[in-house]
Structures are given as C-alpha cells and as structure tokens.
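#onboarding

Welcome to the new folks! Below is a worked example of what a typical request in this channel looks like: someone posts a single protein sequence, and someone else replies with the predicted structure as tokens. Don't worry about understanding the tokens yet, we'll cover that in week two.

Example request:
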Amino acid sequence: MSDGEEVPVLRIIKPDEYEASCFEPVDAKAREQALAIINSIEKEGEEALLKHAWKLGDLPEGTKKFIMSRDELEKAFKGLPEEQRGVLERTAKRIRSFAAAQLASIQTTEVDIEGGRAGQVVSAVQRAGCYAPGGRYPLPSSVLMTACTARTAGVQEVFVASPRPSPVTMAAAFVAGADCLLTIGGAQAIAAMAHGIGVPACDVIVGPGNKWVTAAKSIVHGLCGIDMLAGPSEVLVIADNTADPEIVAADLLAQAEHDVEARPILVSPDALVIEAVNAALKSQLTVLPTREVAAPAVRNGFAVLVPDMKAAISVADRLAPEHLEIQTADSQAVADSCNSYGGLFIGKSAAEVLGDYGAGPNHVLPTSATSKYTGGLSVHTFLRLRTWMRIDDQEAAQAQVSDAVALARLEGLEGHARAAERRLSGNGAKRVKAA
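Example response:
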C-alpha cells in the first residue's frame, strides 16, 4: 500500500446484494497452462519435468536433483533451534491426535444378511502426495496438516512437494513422516506425483496451492483421487454488539494477508459493530507488515448488515465460507444453527488462526461455497471403504435371490436375472465333471 493511498475498509451491503460464491474453483487460463505442462511431463517424463522446474524457478537452471531424502530432511530438522523443533513436534502431535479420533469413528465391520455375512473393510490408500505452497509464504503448517493426517490414516508411502523449501518446511516433512520431499511446485509437481516421475504414482494428491495447482488437480482427478478444488482463502465472522471489534478486525486481516484475492466478510445485525470493526481494520492495516497483500483483500471483502441473527445465519449458510467464526452473545446456539462451512470457530477465544496452526482439526478446507456438499481434509480422504458379501446358507438366501431375479427383469436385464436364478433351489448351474 503506497504512501498517501487510502486505507481500505469493508464495503457495507444489504443481504440481497451478495453473491453466493466467491470464486470459480478452476481458472480457465490456468487450466489451459496446467494441461500443457501435464501433457508434456506425461509424454517426456523427467526431462520435461526439469524443463518446467527450471523455467518456473523451482530449481536453478541445470540442476537435476529435485528429491530430498528422509536423511536430508532429518538433517534439516536437527539444524533448527530447539524451540522451533518443539513447535513442529507439538503441532504434529495435536494434528495426529485429532486425526486418530477421526480414524476411530469409522471401522471395519460386518453384519448378518440372509444366508450369510456382509461387511466393509476400511483401509488406507498405498501412496499419497501432499502439496505445500512455497510462494509468497512457505507453509510448513500445510506439510504437517497433510502428511501427518495421511500417516495417521495408515498410508504406507507419503511424499511431500514444495518449491524452494525452507529449512522449516524440510523439517516439517521429517516430523510428519514423509518419505521424501520433491523440491518442485505448481502443475509440474502435481504431474510428477500423478504420473510417477521421481516418485511412484500417488493414489491421492492433497493440499492447498495456487490456481495452477488447483487446475492441475482438476486435470489429474480420475487418474488419482484429490481432496478438493480450493480457491483463495475466505473468512466470515458473525458478530453482535458483544464482540470485540479489535479481535474481529485481527481475524479478518489474518485471512486477508494470505492472498490479494482472499475475501474477509463480516455479518452483523448492528451497524455500530460494522463501523467499529472498520475503524479497527484501518488502524491495524497501517501497521501490518503484510498490508500490501491484505489491503487489496479487504477491498475485495464486504460487510453485510442484517436485520437480525436469523438473517445473519441465512447469509452465512448461503455463502458457505471456508472459515466461519461466531462471536456473539450465545455463540454456541448460533453455531448450532449454521449448516454450511469448512471449519467452524465458536466464541471469541476460538481464533481461526489456532485452526491454521494445529489445534487439531485440519486447515485444508473447502472454499467457494463448496462446503455445501463437502468437508475439509481428514483421515477419510485417504481411506477406501470396500464392501464384501458371502453366502453360507443358500436356502436361507432364497427370498433375496428371488427379489434379485424380479428386480433384474423389471430393469430388462435378463442376463442378471438368469445369473440370480442359477442360485434358486433346484435350479443351480450344472457342475463340470473332473476329467
């Protein structure tokens, strides 16, 4: 923000003046560029990967080493001050603890069916690729969030990719249990993990990234699984006259500094609250070191003045934000009435940044109103639920076999019907006599 430029505040709009979605999940131009990169890497392999890594500044020109071994990651970890090592280890412990609780909530199980048993097997994918941004702000926290969760889910091989990784990012990969780290980023990193360049092809690729990373994930989805298509960060704060304007402003700026396209949103039934928060935003922005990024994001955001708390909840549910904070007199009651959000933060003490930095729940969350149908990254992202059935008593299964025959003929699938009929008593398939 240049000298003399006016400090931005949130524009105030009415409940019927906002858009339901902040961003398109995939930028069309970024997808076109990402597709060209992925196609060339798929055809030419490591040679193309290195060419793009050099061109886009991931690696110095001519450098062919782009994988850091676990021993190298351990060396980076041991080279950090003790205090920094402790922060990484404690944060990883909190993430693993919450992920373990999620894992315990879904289990391998079986039940009786007519004539036999059926069940589900819960098992992790074999390989996961975890992307962590390395651009404006290196994010070792994203390394912990993705790789720790994958390991807790039971993934056998975990690979991290992050361009120009800092020592703390390398150390985070070690603490999280990554097998190695690819020192490349963007669409080329996603292509490498999807097509098995430098590391085995991954079954699932997760993690936040820029628009080229998101576009690349949309392209490889199907070849492998992905967590979500996430856009720039969003935070929506529902606040009434009991909220502290300075705290609300600080929380809005915490997300605004992520990206110039991030969107901070305030929803309140009290015009004086919006006025006070805007005053606090102006004051805090003038001394915020990251204001060059945060200020455009504030201009991109808005405040919604609503008639009452019911209307505030309706606005929040329609916007379905990545992060939803409730700073009201009865914050739990308001929270219980909200239905669409990526992560929910109840009460003024539950700062969204605590979620960013490992209180337990994952910080890789859906954006652009996609929380209406999906949730954030979790152990479930890395799990497969495979079902099975077995018939031990053919006589006891006759009723369901007959129903299968009837339903198949209702659908016009005679082959299905005849296959089921073979299991009806007295109508079994002829056995082939041994020679």
